[in-house]
Amino acid sequence: MCHWCNQHGDRDHKWYDKAENYLFEKIFPDEAAQEEAKDKVKATFAETEWRYSDPEFIRNKEFLQNRAHSGFGSQIITKEEMLRVLRVADEAVKREDSIMVVGHCPCRLVYEGVRDYVCIGFGMPVTLSMEVGYGRLPKDGLTEYGGAEWSQLRRDLRKGVKVPLQLEEAEELVDEWERRGLWHIVMSRGRLPLIEAICNCERRYCTYWMNRFRSGVPEYVLKGHFVARVGPAVCVRCGECWDKCQFGALHYSATSDNVDIDPTFCMGCGLCASACPNDAIEMIPREEIPIAKDLW
Ligand code: SF4
Ligand code: SF4
């Protein structure tokens, strides 16, 4: 079991499969706790975007460790798990009369000035974040709202209009992101165990990846619950998977003329497996791989 499952899962559920972890009012049951959490949401969104460009923020190990120990955390999951996460999130937003929206990647915005809509937020934090001015929708509209300009949207939000991303739209987006070769992360942004977003990213832009691999704070993004394994007898060496791994776990060995996957490097994203036209790559539960079972 990973740290988050030990702390926030239960015997039958991983932390991101547990419905309660998507319910703001379950995790913050009284009014005082809710108000405190809402203030933290506002502070997070007020600080985050500009801080991604601040070297003191993205390379300060102590600061990042403190953040990781105060409710920031995420984990890589496969596309199949991501679709499950979306279904649980959809149930939760309906139950709490909240919303699910697609938003841009704040990391890429800061690094390149590009708004790439590859994140989905849900629940109270995203509702509130839109109200405080962080969330934006794509101009040409991925939602049934029809792609309103943000200024109009903000006016409408004040009047109580909801801007939901439908579950089916979210599922289609996940398929598209998988085809683009983006890995999937499920996350809390300061309120663990409250699960409030998914991100679909890559190594060049992902601040959570950088916080782990460059700044040495692994809790920012834990390895996933699965590890890739190739069946050499089934692999036809077509090369489709060779450029899919962004973690240095998979390579083609000219010596053995086989695809080689190092389970100690595998983050469990599943991108290689879904790229393989021959189903030669299986995703095996991490606990079944002795050398990788305690590597999170
Ligand atoms: S080996 Fe496959 S599943 Fe593992 S990290 Fe690389 S692409 Fe992802
Ligand atoms: S995509 Fe599948 S069949 Fe092709 S090289 Fe990779 S493992 Fe082998």
Describe the structure.
- With 296 residues, the chain is α+β, with helices and mostly antiparallel strands.
- The protein folds into two domains: 3-220, no CATH class; 226-288, Alpha-Beta Plaits, CATH 3.30.70.20.
- The protein has helices spanning 3-8, 24-27, 31-51, 55-58, 61-68, 79-95, 106-112, 124-131, 150-158, 167-180, 207-213, 271-275; strands spanning 72-77, 100-103, 119-122, 183-189, 197-201, 226-230, 250-253, 258-261, 281-285.
- It has a five-stranded antiparallel β-sheet, sandwiched between helices. A two-stranded antiparallel ribbon has the order 6-9.
- Helix 3 (31-51) crosses helix 8 (124-131) and helix 6 (79-95) runs antiparallel to helix 10.
- The longest helix has 21 residues, at 31-51.
- The radius of gyration is 19 Å and the shape is globular.
- It starts with a helix and ends in an 11-residue tail after the last strand.
- Bound molecules: iron/sulfur cluster (SF4) (2 copies).
- The site of one iron/sulfur cluster has 14 residues, from helix 12.
TL;DR of this structure?
It is built from twelve helices and nine strands.
SSE run: HHHHHEHEHEHHHEEHEEEHE
* Secondary structure: number of strands: 9
Strand order of the largest sheet: 1-4-5-3-2
Q: Any idea what the shape is? A: globular
Bound molecules: iron/sulfur cluster
Poorly predicted runs are 133-149
Tally of separate helices? 12
The level of helicity is 25-40%
Q: CA-to-CA gap between the ends? A: 9 Å
Largest sheet properties: 5 strands, antiparallel
Number of domains: 2
Structural class: alpha+beta
Alpha carbon gyration radius: 19 Å
- Mean pLDDT across every amino acid position: 85
**What is the beta-strand fraction?**
5-15%
